UniProtKB/TrEMBL annotation:
Ranges in a coiled coil: none
Keyword field: Transferase
Record-linked Pfam families: AATase
PANTHER family given in the database record: ALCOHOL O-ACETYLTRANSFERASE 1-RELATED (PTHR28037:SF1)
Protein species of origin: Alkalibacterium pelagium
GO molecular function, one term: transferase activity
Protein name: Alcohol acetyltransferase
Length: 449
């Protein structure tokens, strides 16, 4: 079978393209804090070696008449010293550029990725392989007899929605097919019969929206917080919720307490991505996630406590990650993409519609968070990597969480200069007795002087 040199984007990727702005570039970054200064030559060799094994990354973005699509390219990526602000735009419609970049600065190695290419899991697989190969080149003695690379189990171009949302199980072809999406659309008329009863998510009024002063050159305000993961886990267990929900509850409280003019009721919502690979086993490198919204309504004349907030959002999350809830949300996206009226609409018009959808959705979201969980490297690599963390460009305040070894990394990003919400969050955890290390970037002319 002749190799297919293009891949059509899924619905989520099209939204990233339509919704990107100068502030929210839809770019995210992973950083490895190495134990020694980075050697650019070794990093370049490692990049070429790993890049060869990831066909998805060997693509540029193209604009078709009706949709965007990825087109295979022979371009070779080159490592770059860090000279631009973090998460600077990667995709430009008038250039055929790779959709990721590898950057280095002193002892740090970064990878920045345009979200339309892949999600955090897919990018992390690439980054883990890159750091492993770099360490192999720099310290071959650490690998001993295990000097040969073990290929990662993955499927670069597979669209995992095809596997889980098709009417009949068929033998999967080597080239991704769009037929299951067609079938899913045809089944949409009977969606109520095929799914278990699902109660729609509550529609909230008075959703608070954070406002502030946009940074002068649109670089994100970044606050890196590091503490011991065992200490935060102990606090979350005390409240009988996961670490994700415990930190989310603190963020909600921090947002509410930062509101200067409180209403009778203020609803704080948090957008949380859900990695679908934990519910639908998949080795796809492509985007395979959904999002859900947690909410809590604060009342001006009623006291609140973290226990009540934790229990409320715990109930919400358990409902939203049920298979019937996930399937209903995803089939709606698929139905939109394959609606006959939508398919014949020209791409610029679709861009405007998706941009409007994004703006409308954003009105319901106060802040956001993302948790990639525990990140790890091969045993022989870890001594040469002190820490790994990640963050993303944002349209609203957000924090990203991951652990590495015994460290818990919480990275706040915001399009605003102000840091009141983040300060309240940090003070809360500090008051619980945590030992916290902080690093804050500079965003204003006064701070750089």
């Amino acid at each position: 079978m002749e190799k297919k040199n293009w891949v059509r984007l899924d619905n989520a990727s099209n939204i990233f393209l339509a919704a990107r702005t100068d502030v929210d570039t839809k770019v995210f970054r992973f950083t490895a804090h190495m134990s020694e200064k980075v050697d650019p030559a070794s990093l370049q060799k490692a990049l070429i070696k790993v890049y060869e094994g990831y066909p998805l990354f060997q693509n540029v973005m193209r604009r078709g008449i009706f949709w965007y699509y990825l087109e295979h390219t022979e371009k070779i990526p080159y490592v770059q010293p860090e000279t631009m602000p973090p998460c600077t735009a990667i995709y430009h419609y008038d250039r055929k550029e790779l959709l990721f970049r590898v950057i280095y600065n002193e002892n740090r190695i970064h990878i920045e990725v345009f979200h339309a290419l892949t999600d955090g899991t897919g990018a992390m697989w690439f980054f883990e392989d890159l750091i492993t190969e770099y360490t192999r080149l720099r310290h071959p003695e650490a690998f001993g007899e295990n000097s040969e690379r073990t290929p990662r189990q993955k499927q670069d171009l597979e669209d995992s929605f095809n596997r889980y949302f098709r009417k009949k199980k068929k033998k999967r072809e080597n080239v991704p097919t769009r037929e299951p999406f067609e079938e899913a659309y045809k089944e949409a008329d009977n969606i109520e019969k095929s799914l278990q009863p699902y109660e729609e998510q509550t529609q909230y009024s008075n959703v608070h929206r954070v406002k502030g002063t946009i940074t002068p050159d649109h670089r994100p305000r970044i606050i890196e917080m590091t503490t011991q993961v065992k200490d935060v886990l102990a606090l979350s267990k005390k409240h009988k919720v996961s670490l994700t929900l415990y930190l989310t509850a603190i963020f909600m409280i921090s947002v509410y307490e930062s509101i200067e003019e409180k209403k009778e009721e203020d609803t704080v919502t948090v957008s949380i991505p859900v990695n679908l690979r934990q519910f639908y086993p998949s080795f796809s490198v492509r985007n395979f996630f959904s999002t859900t919204l947690m909410a809590y309504t604060f009342k001006k004349d009623q006291p609140y406590n973290i226990e009540d907030i934790c229990q409320e959002i715990d109930k919400q999350l358990k409902k939203e990650i049920k298979p019937e809830a996930i399937e209903k949300r995803l089939k709606r996206f698929i139905g939109f993409e394959f609606h006959p009226a939508v398919r014949v609409v020209f791409r610029p018009i679709k861009d405007l519609v998706l941009k409007w959808v994004s703006l409308y959705t954003n009105r319901k979201i106060t802040v956001a968070m993302s948790n990639l969980g525990k990140l790890s490297l091969p045993e022989m690599v870890e001594p040469y990597v002190d820490n790994i963390n990640f963050y993303t460009a944002v349209v609203r305040p957000q924090f990203c969480v991951n652990s590495y070894k015994d460290k818990l990394n919480i990275l706040f990003t915001s399009p605003f200069i102000e840091t009141d919400i983040q300060k309240r969050f940090i003070r809360y955890l500090s008051s619980e007795g945590l030992d916290i290390q902080l690093d804050v970037n500079k965003v204003t002319r006064e701070e750089f002087q």
